[in-house]
């Protein structure tokens, strides 16, 4: 596990490079024949429609492997009821690469209330039902049925977030690692270009996956710990009154815990193993140290241990200091290697400058693919996020270290959109990525960055070691909007407003030139109790940003509005928190059109709070801080109702809740009240035709307050929420 990475484009190309790049990666034997191919070296099976664009995973992986000289075919959204579709490109020479797509298949199909979604943005025509639940498992099984002797490599966000035992919201239980459930040969997590290129070249040279089981950014099945490896036992949490000192999985990287060395050959887990205890003063080599997580059986039956395991896993996420992890599942183990080394800027440029067609495969004809329509005029300028929001999966998948493209490469892509993308009218819809404004932001000291074990660089406040100057981004915006043929450059990615306010010139540039009338940001909540469980800044930072937003909008003579997003039913949020948020919304004139309720996605820290009932942002012990989550559907509906306090259909539920909370003083027909006493006809539980009873006073007219959040937006929805 050498921390020095092999440059991505420095490998000797595979012999098949003589065929050159394909116009589109082939999806049929006919296309292969036209290219002169007798077979594919790698076949990618994906749950998304094939769009040859760098915002789509199958295109990035396929084109990256093609640049290495390999012949890559695509099987997109196959019929999973038989193996027939999995055989249509023939037998791959090296392996099947399986991915559920750009989203976890369960998140893609089900809402936070477990209702089936009516559409799928990654499918032609937006049609739902074109991929199975737990697509990684089903696709892998069908690949095995088609060609049982061909290795299967799984990756993508579904595999990435399910690499260890994980809580599954839809089954309300902890599931095994997807690696073992799918019976794949190896799992690649995160942005997997490095591991995939090295793995593919190795297999082409006659190596086996077993020969490459210690590739960074991968997980493999194991029978035990190899000889010569040091083990840190983290299978239990500290118990009250315990005298013996247990190894500390949260230690500073400069310290050395009590550890165990297995100096015997690998053995079955139940077999006795020779153990040597190493003095605490011994400095352990990180590339030969593995942390033993609580087993699948332990975390399945013990929610506290689940929270503990989640914390340990997240603490071992910095490529500069992460150690390998091992987790027992019955008589087998899942071995998780440290995260991949982030791509350098020249490598990022190389990946994004591959010969993408930037349009869907011709097989889809004129059918619209909503996810493509949203990003076809946008440019991805970076990867990663150091925000660490507990409900978000970006950090777990892409890492905390920002991977940047060069200014030259970004501007080159803007010109390519102008010159080649059908339907372009002069407006770039976004220059962004997981966040809008983390491009070129990094730790001031590489050595500090290498040893850091913080879960966030911006919570509870911005780290003093974080470089926050966004003037390079201001210069990029200015250059992009002055390119001939470019009328406007908008910013649609989620904005970290707590970072933005550190560079007022950035806020001014953004507000005066790159906002299409509305800017969506995500404070997520107003109450400290909830925000502390999200690792989000206080609402005071939002107020500071809003002041700057209003000031610069006025200076430019523009009428522009902020649209804040909020989340309901997040772990640690009480009914009182939601009531206070509703009062803030009314006081500030906001009426939420759409409401998002918390969805416990695999691997997220907030999911550990949801299931484990403890706060994994701190050291987890049996008596550590409890986190209560609003799990029942009645309470979740109430929390969403508070966000839509203005919807008359929610008033009966809110009236009863306010009475139960002892806050009936908020029910009335004045400005200081949250909801009125009357019920309009045909709303809530009132029968059709019901009216407010007349009194001796004049009938009060109920007027709809038309606020900025009610107005129809001319801007496409943000790809990411930060």
SSE order and pairing:
Layout: H1 29-35, E1 42-46, H2 57-67, E2 72-76, E3 95-99, H3 105-109, H4 135-146, E4 152-155, H5 156-161, E5 166-168, E6 173-175, H6 178-182, E7 186-188, H7 193-204, E8 218-222, E9 229-233, E10 259-262, E11 275-278, E12 289-292, H8 296-301, H9 303-315, E13 324-329, E14 332-336, H10 345-352, H11 370-375, E15 378-380, E16 382-383, H12 394-398, E17 403-404, H13 407-420, E18 427-428, E19 430-432, H14 446-451, H15 471-481, E20 488-489, H16 497-500, H17 504-513, E21 518-524, H18 528-534, H19 539-555, E22 561-568, H20 575-587, E23 596-597, H21 605-612, H22 633-643, H23 651-660
Helix pairs in contact: 9-21, 15-17, 17-19, 20-22
What features would you describe in this structure?
It is a single chain. The protein is an alpha/beta fold and 722 residues long. It folds into three domains: 1-217 and 340-350, Response regulator (Rossmann fold); 221-325, no CATH class; 376-646, Alpha-Beta Horseshoe (pyruvate-formate lyase- activating enzyme). The protein is 29% helix and 13% strand. Helix 15 packs parallel to helix 17 (504-513). The radius of gyration is 27 Å and the shape is globular.
Category from helices, strands and their pairing: alpha/beta
**Number of E strands:** 23
Tally of separate helices: 23
Strand content: 5-15%
CATH architecture assignment name of the largest domain? Alpha-Beta Horseshoe
The spatial strand order of the largest sheet comes to: 2-1-3-4-7-8-14-13-12-9-10-11
User: What is the terminal separation in angstroms?
Assistant: 33 Å
CATH topology of the largest domain: pyruvate-formate lyase- activating enzyme
Quickly count the domains.
3
Main sheet attributes: strand count, strand direction, barrel closure: 12 strands, mixed
Gross geometry: globular
- Runs in which pLDDT lies below 50 for 5 or more consecutive residues are 239-281, 686-722
**What share of residues is helical?**
25-40%
